Amino acid sequence: MVVDRRRCLVVAVLLASADAVRPAVATRPPAVRTAAPVMIMDQLKKIADDGALAVKQAAAEKVVGERVAAKLAAAQAKYDIPQKYTNLMQSFFTSYMTEIYLADRDLDEYEQILSTLMKKVLETAQEPHTFQPFHEAIRAPFDYYKMGCDFANGMVDADRSLVLGAEQIEKMQQQIAAGDNVVLFANHQSEADPQIFSVLLDPKVPGFAEETIFVAGDRVTTDLLAMPFSMGRNLLCIFSKKHVDNPPELKSTKQRRDLAARQPRGSREMAERRPRDSRE
């Protein structure tokens, strides 16, 4: 940032004072100093804006970090949280609330959502959920689906997000109604993809994303932070080829589990009415 700022300023000075270093010619009228090009001014403005944003972000991280730390300290007094997860939760929750602040969202609303998530994370740490080969979303007595969507909603700029190919959804719904299966292949980016899928599609096509069955590897069904989000989705739980061999003594168990996931109880009935998203 400093290097770029200096470069832009030097260029601006040279352009603005080019006539001052030009040899004088008696027959020419005095040179008029020209204004710096708009592009240079835009760059300088961007540097100033970036600097202001950096200051705002640093201040937000400090304030939010202190509030998150206080919540974690209170939770640590009640629950025996492993240190590695304490550090992870501190970093993750601070980053999340900082972005909520920078996006001018309602801090009180999202702090309550964060508190609910933190509570569920700590509960599953004490008593981890066991995922069956076919896991159906848990909606009661606590609605894990809603919690995941509420959490993801704070990170999605719906007004500027694009949903491409929406015209295919009606075709898929017709195929499902006719008893066919629909499989969506996606090059996914993060464990939050199912929740983002819902945030973008629920207002447009109610029920479509909600009833989609996702293929889930063991990380999202065992990780302390990911588990509450996974509990709110319909999942076919498998071990990927990348992880099925490790550790070697569990390979046969994992292979049997993967075989069971291909024909889980109730999967045929579910497949008749739900689209599936298969992700590598």
What does this structure look like?
- This protein is 55% helix and 6% strand.
- It has 280 residues and is of the alpha/beta class.
- A five-stranded mixed β-sheet has the order 1-4-3-5-2.
- Helix 1 runs antiparallel to helix 2.
- The longest helix is centred in the first third of the chain and has 41 residues.
- The chain is globular.
- The N terminus is likely disordered.
How would you describe this structure in keywords?
disordered N terminus, 280 residues, 5 strands
What is the strand and helix layout of this fold?
Blueprint: H1 2-16, H2 38-78, H3 83-102, H4 107-126, E1 134-135, H5 144-153, H6 167-177, E2 183-186, H7 193-201, E3 213-216, H8 219-222, H9 227-230, E4 234-237, H10 251-262, H11 267-273, E5 276-279
Parallel strand pairs: 2-5, 3-4, 3-5
Antiparallel strand pairs: 1-4
Helix pairs in contact: 1-2, 2-3, 3-4, 5-7
